[in-house]
Specification:
By secondary structure, the protein is mainly beta. Helix content is 3%, strand content 45%. The chain contains one helix and nine strands. A hairpin with an 8-residue loop joins strand 4 and strand 5.
């Protein structure tokens, strides 16, 4: 995904990734079973420190069925919510508008250094607790923007 311009990066965020409901369609994600999670990734180059991660819910997610929950966590292969702990995205929840730096890598820490290339993992989880089964393929609306501050150490 694109690097931000100097003006967009005034807060210091260097990269962004926008995910909308179309990314979960059968054409883009394949067939997803009821309650199956979907993970998107963002590449972290070797020699990079991740110091901030944020999410902005531009449009709450909704579905064509009875689903009433969609959460996202952001981390990596070592700690799946190391950057952002669970954030609600579904229109039927008390969804977030903005959230940043709630994970253990950043909360009371200074970020995480990657000496080898890795990925930021953005894991979308339906039906977190209410027992209302649905597939992420059923999403009909929603868009969330993630921003990252990646600092090159090389």
């Amino acid at each position: 995904m694109p690097k931000l311009t100097v003006n967009e990066g005034a807060f210091g965020m260097s990269d962004e990734l926008i995910i909308d409901f179309a990314a979960f369609s059968v054409a883009n994600a394949g067939v997803l079973a009821d309650n199956a999670t979907k993970t998107f990734t963002y590449v972290i180059p070797a020699g990079t420190m991740v110091t901030d991660v944020s999410a902005y819910l531009m449009t709450a997610f909704d579905d064509s069925g009875g689903g009433d929950e969609l959460n996202v966590i952001v981390g990596d292969g070592t700690d799946d919510d190391g950057f952002l702990t669970t954030a609600a995205l579904h229109v039927d929840q008390t969804e977030i508008t903005f959230v940043a730096d709630t994970g253990a890598y950043i909360d009371n820490e200074n970020g995480k250094v990657y000496t080898v290339a890795d990925t930021i993992d953005l894991k979308f989880i339906p039906n977190v607790s209410t027992g209302t089964d649905y597939s992420l393929n059923e999403l009909t609306a929603g868009q969330v923007k993630f921003k990252f501050r990646l600092v090159s150490l090389a």
